[in-house]
Amino acid sequence: MRIAVISDVHGNLPALEAVLADMGSIDALLCCGDLVGYYPDVAEVVDRLRALGALSVRGNHELMATGAIPAPVERAGYYRIDWTRRALSPEQLGWLAALPCALELHRDGLAIEVRHASPWDEETYLYPDSPALAGLTLPDARWLFLGHTHHPMLVRAGGGVVVNPGSVGQPRDWNPKAAYGVLDTASGGWEQRRVGYDHRAYQRRLEVMGVDPRSVGLLGRMRFA
Ligand SMILES: [Fe+2]
Questions:
Q1: Maximum CA pair distance of the chain?
Q2: 208-225 confidence digits (pLDDT tens)
Q3: How far away, in angstroms, is 38 Cα from ligand 1 center?
Q4: pLDDT digit string (tens) for 88-144?
Q5: Which SS3 state, helix, strand or coil, does residue 211 take?
Q6: Distance between CA atoms of residues 170 and 175, nearest Å
Q7: How far, in Å, from the CA of 7 to the mean position of ligand 1?
Q8: Distance, CA 150 to ligand 1 centroid (Å)?
Q9: How far is the CA of 117 from the centre of ligand 1 (A)?
Q10: Domains delineated in the chain
């Protein structure tokens, strides 16, 4: 079974379409949250992933957009929380508010868990050198998928694996190509992929809207603590 895992699309439809075209035939599509926030295609991204039957958890941007948690005052403008809320219909906001904080499925002897940021919340950033990650031990054959950092990662944790597929819409490693990956449950293999798209055209579109175009493809080593 081929399971594609995406995360942190953040309303970037061209990047999402590039990833969907690249992944080919899959058996399931999982999303680690943050469908919305930052960029202008939030309604289209929500509709596209719903139509595909993607299984998604909620991210901190879903929690902020739906009012479940307040946006940090210093980042609310940068995140474009108010704009995002206005761009979504009440029905879409209701769908986002109902997303679970965790998903778990079992295929070919693998236990696959999806969370946005960490096993315990939607806001902790887990990088390969994070002390909290070093203390994490998973049972054999458990795959824990996380997003949130916008950095691809694969770390062994006991008998299990912690994977971050990276960000579709806003990679933060100086590489403008959209990041995602595919898990082959039969072989237990993870393929990390990067897909180019016309990010310069998207940057120009953002610039016209007054959104910082550098945030698409020109973010490197941006880490929130
Ligand atoms: Fe994010």
A1: 50
A2: 988 887 777 666 555 543
A3: 9
A4: 999 999 999 999 999 999 999 999 999 999 999 999 999 999 999 988 999 999 999
A5: coil
A6: 9
A7: 8
A8: 6
A9: 9
A10: 2-215 (3.60.21.10)
